[in-house]
Amino acid sequence: MAYRFEVMPRLVAAKAVAIVRERSATEGRRVVDALTGAGMGALEVTCTTPGAFALVESLRDGATLVGVGTVLSASEAVDAAHAGASFIVTPNFEPAVITAAHRHGLAAIVGCGTATEIVRALEAGADACKVFPAEQLGMGFLRAIHGPLPWAPLVPVGGVDAANAADWLAAGGIAVGLGSKLTSGDVAANVATLRRNLGL
Hints:
Elements: H1 4-14, E1 16-20, H2 25-37, E2 42-46, H3 52-58, E3 65-69, H4 74-83, E4 87-89, H5 95-103, E5 107-112, H6 115-123, E6 128-131, H7 134-137, H8 139-145, E7 154-156, H9 165-170, E8 176-178, H10 180-183, H11 187-197
Parallel strand pairs: 1-2, 1-8, 2-3, 3-4, 4-5, 5-6, 6-7
Helix pairs in contact: 3-4, 4-5
């Protein structure tokens, strides 16, 4: 578990977060083990994965930066903290979730899809903004947002893969989030390709 002030520097250094969203606890365990074994520096276990909090708790003392994703309520943010997560990720902007996360020492990466949401999320204390769905918004969206908001910490998620992750970073992401395009198939090979393409 990392302190909140440590999360963003570590996330920037890792450059990518693996998003674990599986249909069973068994599959979630397999994917998490494959990711950590392959040297993934940061991962997010979504609340939609059965046994998500138990998975996170099992990683409490590891070297990987671990968060909980698809957090929709303040109570889920509290549960994430109790499980030993270092950050939460939301698909939407909900001020109460940010407050709960911060109250319990977690960084909050908040889902945003417009300039208005990004400004409001940052004003509410979000540590970074998850640009979602990035594939639909496009890399041009990140570049455009950084015109009036050059300081906005953006993490594109959705449509990011090992082949284009570096392009999303070049477009203005401080890190990227990768889901099924990283966690399906040969996870170790996918992570190796990602790390090579990101210069890790």
